[in-house]
Amino acid sequence: MVASIFINGIIGTPNVFENGEFTSFNDVERQFESFEKPDSITVYIDSIGGSYRDGFRIKNFLQNTGLPITAIVTGDVFSIATIILLSAPLERRFASKDSNGLIHNPKPAFPTDGDAAEHEARARDLRKIEDHLASVYAENTTLSFNEAKAEMSKDELIRPDDMIRMGLIAGISERLQAVAMFDLNIDDMSNTEELKGISKTLADIKKRLFSNEKSPLENVPVVDLTEAKTDETPALQARIDELEAELAESKAKNKEVIENNTALEDTATKQTEAINQFKTQFVALEKQIQGLEAEKKELESTPIIQTEKKSPTYTNKAGKSVNYPADVLAHLNQITTNFNNR
Question: Which pTM does this prediction carry?
Answer without folding.
Answer: 0.52
